[in-house]
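This section describes the prediction task in plain terms. A model, or a person checking by hand, is given the sequence of a single protein chain and must write out its three-dimensional structure as a string of tokens. No templates, partner chains or ligands are provided. The sample shown here is typical of the held-out split.
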Amino acid sequence: MLVVEDDDDLRTALTYGLESEGFVVTAVPSASAAFEVVADLRPDLVLLDWWLSEGEQGAAACSRMVETSGAPVVMHTGMSDARDRAAAYRAGAAAFLQKGMPLEELARRLREVLGGATL
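The expected answer:
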């Protein structure tokens, strides 16, 4: 799994937490860094922050990541705006998940996107 999150503390927590749930995680701080590694990494899933501090973000980053990675892209956000959610799904997002949900719930939702598989 590729985790794209610009908040250092959250990126570290997601990495350790998802690894403890059995996922293999590579984490990067920006969409630019993600696009640099995605071809070689070939992740089974991308967990992408909606609002990144640099580079592409939101629906544009989602659309490009879907096209570039070929993997399901799950948008991870603190936003709950229905327009953002609709834009994410139009851009090809497999899911639009709120930040702050318990780790076990996040892992369950990611497994659902993967069809029950573990990364």
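For orientation: The chain has a mean pLDDT of 91.
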